[in-house]
Amino acid sequence: MVTVDRRTLLKAGVTASAAGALGMTTTGTATAAVPAPTIHPTSEWGARPAAGTIVVENHKPTYIVVHHAVDPPMNNDFSLARAFYVSRFIQNLHMDKNGWIDSGQQFTNSRGGYVTEGRHRSLEILRGGTQHVQGANVGGHNSEVIGIENEGLYSTVDVPQALWDSLVSLVAYIAHQYGIAPEFIKGHRDFNSTECPGQVLYNRLPELRTAVGRVLGVPVARAEAEWPLLKPGDTGRKVQLAQQFLRASGFGVPTDGVFGKSTKEAVAALSVQAGLPRDTCTAAKVTDETGFLGADVWPLIVPADRSAAAWRADLSRA
């Protein structure tokens, strides 16, 4: 079986960070005045005190990351009271089940279009515009991301218009405060092997970048290709390439282009061996995400004869 050394892991872990840092020095930043949206602080929705020290990073985040929230199950209650309930539910889940000190995300966006502060101090620090609160929403990248949990499961259905409008406003404000270019608006799956923020919402990220760029008054550069997400049951050329890479890494999987049981088991074993953080997105309650092959697995198996960016571009065309 393949042995993954620390150097390989570090290489995989810094790929997105290095690309982001480069992009921040070469792309335009916000120039238009952006009004602050209404954000309800933790004191309003009855948050529990944090169970530990809130870490404040002494730098700006590089990425704004969009999530979806499976729990509590979505319904047609679009009220402010519902938004507060969702915030409490998520905080309890993150603290009591995941063992985190507080809500993992910095902000929560409800189906009714109400935005709440997630992790304590996130709103205060965002208003300062020079630091950011470290969350727990993107494994291996929490020092460089600011995350937004969007109420609902968006794998097959679209977001309500109210949620979309508030998401645009919130992301535009965050981008303005930190000088983040729209192409650095990402989905959770761009960092970890998860479907989050759901295929439908993920497909709308280019639209979100365009909308935010319009609010900021800046051009939106084309985002780099991302690592594809492969799941059990998938078929095709990308799956076949992944299988070939897995075989070259020491796993006895077929190269038939079918993401079957043995391929899933190989990816799961590699993830454990490499010490990748197990995804804690609550979408896993609906779909078992064990063995998903995404952004944190590909760098461990692709040949070292070209850059990560080149491999992402090639795989996007496969």
From TrEMBL:
Pfam families: Amidase_2 (PF01510), PG_binding_1 (PF01471). Residues 1-32 form the signal peptide. The keyword Nucleotidyltransferase does not apply. InterPro entries: Amidase/PGRP_sf, Amidase_domain, Peptidoglycan-bd-like, PGBD-like_sf, PGBDSf, PGRP, PGRP_domain_met/bac, TAT_signal. Keywords: Signal. Transmembrane segments: none annotated. SMART domains: PGRP (SM00701). Residues 37-192 form the Peptidoglycan recognition protein family domain. PROSITE patterns: TAT. PANTHER family: PEPTIDOGLYCAN RECOGNITION PROTEIN, PEPTIDOGLYCAN-RECOGNITION PROTEIN LC-RELATED. Belongs to the N-acetylmuramoyl-L-alanine amidase 2 family. This is N-acetylmuramoyl-L-alanine amidase.
